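Hey L., structure's done. Input below.
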Amino acid sequence: KSSEEVPVIVKVVAPDEDKYTPAGKTQTVKPNETPQAVNSIESASSLPEGTQYAFKAPVNTSSEGDKSAVVVVTYPDGTRDEVPV
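Output:
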């Protein structure tokens, strides 16, 4: 049995949650309409392909008015950001 040492390079990269800072934006929907989480993120088109968006809790749209919510942005590497909207 023989062995040989082979030099390798290991590349360490920052997780997606450290590379991106998504911002929230106002989304307008009609009463009882279900908002789409992605539409509440200002920079969604600049985030990596495969990024997923979901509200942390359902948004109650049964009455008119401003509703606060949090969008959970999940990156392809599994890391997450929570964005108040």
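The first helix runs from residue 16 to 19. The chain has a mean pLDDT of 94.

-- N.
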